[in-house]
Known about the structure:
mainly alpha, 95% helix
Amino acid sequence: MEINIFKIAVFLLLILVYLTVRKLFKRFTDFTENIGNSVYNEEELKRLKTKIVQLEQQINNEP
Length: 63
């Protein structure tokens, strides 16, 4: 009888560990995704600003 209770307790503990690890990995991936998006957005903004400046110069140079 004690072995069955022990097996049930171990099974529940494994489920708890699985859910905890899964939650930690989700937080880690969300964190790294946010870092990646912020760097990408800054580079994209710089590229678009330079493109705008080039287009403004082209408009101003053509009569």
